[in-house]
Amino acid sequence: MQCLLPSPFSFLPYSILNPLIELCIFFKNLCSTKFNAEHLIHMENNNTFILCKLEKIFPPPFFDSMEHLLVHLPYEAIIGGLVQYQWMYPFER
Known about the structure:
Elements: H1 14-30, H2 37-57, H3 65-68, H4 73-80, H5 89-92
């Protein structure tokens, strides 16, 4: 999903497309199999800028508690380790 999302939106202006691509890169790096705590701290700092850019594009009703969780995901990855071992997707199937 992180790789496919930017392609259908490629016709959008750069000011709208850039935050969407940054969001996709954020999730791609978060779900990677290599763990780098320094990179996760950098992602945590840049995450607020991504959310601010998205707030300029989308209307306020778009943002609920789920968008706010993006702020906490890198911290949870630093504490808990790799993200794929924290999710319950394998156990739900």
